[in-house]
Amino acid sequence: MDRPALYFDHAATTPLRSEALDAMRPHLSGAFGNPSSAHRWGRQARAALEGARAECARSLGAEPAEIAFVRGGTEADNMAVLGRAAVAVAAGERPRTIATRIEHSAVREACDEVAARGGESVHVDVDPTGDLEEAGLANALSRGACVLSVMWVNNEVGTVLPVARVADRARAAGVVVHSDAVQAVGKVPVNFGRAGLDLASMSAHKIGGPRGVGLLYRRRGVKLAPLLFGGGQERRLRPGTEDVAGAVGLAKALTLAVEEQTEEAERLAVERDRLQAAIVDALPGTRVFGAEGQRAPHLLNLGFPGLDAAPLVIAFDLAGVAVSGGSACASGSTTTSPVLRALYGDGAEGLASVRFSLGRTTTSAEVSEAACRTIEIVNRARALAGARGG
Question: Secondary structure of 3-15 in the HEC alphabet?
Fold first, then answer.
């Protein structure tokens, strides 16, 4: 029991970077002003907030006015979908959303909410390589929509979707396009402007920033209704006193993640592939989800036949290894995830899906140890299942 704990759940959250914490410290104590106040304390806070906004814009290929600070990726996704639906309703139209079948629940359930309020939610199939089903996409776009949402990197299997190509199609059809880029930023090259996006979401705590902070990119000229009311902050898009320390921490973490992206992606891909090879070689029948197309370098989703995901994840925890049974937002679920069902159909059934996600602090030694423990855990679980006759 003296073996060190291993953290392989960076897609769920990452440790706060010391650089981000250092940047935040002055705004957690001495520089406490409200950015909306006119006095010197307020002006000091406003300067820090706008500096963070400009820093984020530079890192993401945007203009400062196109960046709105929010409370995280889920809120940003909801703002994009529900905010666009509200614009359609205000124009006297029935809101209609389009989304891929492998979107994060923050997008998927927001689209469901639009339908529950009298609108319509359309889903487009995605194949295991990440390509959208052509006929379905063409049909959906031909009927129009208030928003099309296509995630940049899938949070469960790491599949990279053709965001720029889909954005071109949507723009030609006059449809506003949104991308959940939470798992993409810092892992693959990201530039919101060059990708042709109208809306995009990201979250600080996935890249070494503070929890509870994110941003929504809104291209200049795109109409979006607020979800909350009671103030003019964030250009009336997100009322409420801004979290200056959080914005500063996000900006610092984002700058570092983008600067380090190329080198870190190469390192993570090598370690991810080494972890994959060691486990697959030792455990015949293991399925690698997401390997059919381009994958973000930090994600590895393995399916182990004949086992249940929930108890298997608990076994990993007892062995000192932090992993996830897919998306951390769906922890505790005992059914096959909607993402795996959408990508693989019946091919995902009967497999315990375990997501390993690597990060900046993951070492080669930890990867080697994680592989050894995984082999031990799965073999022990198989032996127990065999003893029970299951």
Answer: CCCEECECCCCCC
Cα–Cα distance between 179 and 194 in angstroms, integer?
13
Q: Does position 329 have pLDDT exceeding 90, yes or no?
A: no
* pTM of the predicted model as reported, rounded to 2 decimal places: 0.95
Q: Which amino acid would we find at residue 209?
A: G
Supply the DSSP symbol for 16.
Answer: P
Give the Cα separation of 110 and 75 in Å (integer). 10
Q: Give the pLDDT confidence score for residue 232 in this predicted structure.
A: 87
Please identify every residue annotated as catalytic.
329
Interatomic CA distance for residues 246 and 136, integer angstroms = 40
Spell out the residues 6+ positions from residue 301 whose beta carbon is closer than 8 angstroms to its own. 156, 157, 158, 288, 289, 290, 326, 353, 354, 355, 356
Residue 270: its H or E element: helix 244-282
Residues 290 and 159 sit within 8 Å (Cβ to Cβ): yes
Instruction: Write b or e for each residue in 60-99: b if 16 or more Cβ atoms lie within 10 A of its Cβ, otherwise e.
Output: bbbeeebbbbbbbbbbbbbbbbbbbbbbbbeeeeebbbbb
Residues 108, 77: Cα–Cα separation, whole Å: 9
Whole-number Å distance between alpha carbons of 203 and 22: 19
Nearest partner of 83 among 144, 172, 149, judged by Cα: 149
Instruction: Give every CB contact of residue 232 below 8 A, 6+ residues apart in sequence.
Output: 239
Structure tokens at 146: 């208030």
More confident residue, 312 or 333: 312
217 forms beta bridges with: 67, 200
b/e map of 227-240 (b: 16 or more CB within 10 Å)?
A: eeeeeebbeebbee
The one-letter code for the residue type at 275 is L
Cα 329–chain centre separation:
11
The rounded Cα 13 to chain-centroid distance in angstroms is 10
Mean pLDDT of 338-366: 96
Per-residue pLDDT band for 214 (boundaries 50, 70, 90) equals: very high
**Of the candidates 221, 347, 364, which has an alpha carbon nearest to the alpha carbon of residue 285?**
347
